[in-house]
Amino acid sequence: MGGKKPRQTRHKSRSSRAEAANGKWYRAGLRFECTQCGKCCTGEPGYVWVETQEAEKIAEFLDISLNEFHVRYTRNVSGRISLIELQNGNCVFYDPNTCRCRVYPVRPTQCVTFPFWDSNLQSPEAWAETASRCPGCNLGPVHSFTTIEKLRKRRSV
Question: Which residues contact 60 (CB under 8 A, 6 or more apart)?
Fold first, then answer.
């Protein structure tokens, strides 16, 4: 029997997305809108991983050489590059006068994808804990499951 195969691509992709969403508690989406409050940039010590391309963009934005960027703003942590933090735990690019990021338009992927990190999406309780520190969680537009998954997969944190 010859002939064309039935077109199932569109249906299959919807079905695949639905199957992937089934096991996720946030399958109906989550509300988030960055308020640029700076709370995710301050306080607890940690790492903000920076890839080479991201470092180049930030250096260009600051109008400095890539070498100067690395000397002034990064540290090597087990072979990976992280932004340095101040003694109080604040990110080196957090501006306490404006409570904003000085490199916001070119901030690293890790910052762009917050709060849609694996650690924050593990459970409704993990999301609620994140929301207790971030006023943008549960605010603003609903991000679809597909959008959340794209962001989550960009950088594992």
Answer: 106
**What is the DSSP code string of 105-141?**
GG--HHHHTTT--HHHHS-HHHHHHHHHH-TTEEEEE
Question: What confidence tens digit (pLDDT) does each residue in 12-64 have?
Answer: 445 444 444 557 999 999 999 998 888 889 887 889 999 999 999 999 999 99
Chain segment 23-37, per-residue pLDDT in tens:
799 999 999 999 888
- Asked if residue 31 lies in contact with residue 138, where contact means CB atoms within 8 angstroms, the answer is yes
Please report, for the chain, the start and end positions of each structural domain, with discontinuous segments joined by +. Answer: 27-154
Radius of gyration of the chain, Cα coordinates, nearest whole angstrom = 19
CA quadruple 28, 34, 39, 41: dihedral sign? positive
Q: How far apart are CA 81 and CA 74, in angstroms?
A: 6
- Tell me the backbone φ, ψ of residue 109, rounded to 5 degrees: -55, -40
